[in-house]
What does this fold into?
Amino acid sequence: MKRGVWEFNILMLCIIVGLLFALQFKNVKGQYEYVPLKVIHDYKVLIERENKEIKNLKDMIADRENKIEEYEKIQEEGGKFKEALLKELKEEKFRSGFMDMEGPGIILTLDDGTRELEEGEDPNDVLVHDLDILSIINDLKVAGAEAISINGQRLLANSEISCGGHSMRINNQFFAQPFIIKAIGDPKKLEAALTAPVSTGELLKMYGLYVEVNTSLNIKIPKYSEEINFRYLKVSEEGE
It folds into this structure.
């Protein structure tokens, strides 16, 4: 009788141990479940994006702290906030294009061609179009131009350049040829961007348009003088 009880206990112990092994195997299998590479990549991109956002927030906080310290220093030294704010306003105008500027750069003159047309040739081939000017502006930006104007109109991000009959619309005003494009930056780089063999300037010359590029040690570009109305733009919440 005792031997039967002992054997029964051994049997129950084996069953319990078997169940524990089965549960443990199930848990281990769940932990090492297969994860597709795309999911890993998406998580990696998400983590990098969050880290970048954290860095931006830290930079913003550091900037605000520096600003507070600057204001506290002005207060301790008996300075005036008005002067500090005017200084900041001047810096913002400098960066945004609302101040007259001067510096070294180039002056480009662009006009319609005067050569005789070949038989069957489209007269538009020797006329200045908005795409020609846009391409030149892009070449100047790539070459590091810090300020650009066309016929005295300062170009900003919202400046439009479009053909309007025989004239060109720039900053909501119309101008006829010739188009005088001024750019402040490294004169050699700007000149090379317009006179290199594959540049837009040289291609327009090949078509017969008048293109003249000159460098200058002191070019003056006026500030943006048109009114800007933002209907849809708004400041995003910090941290978004």
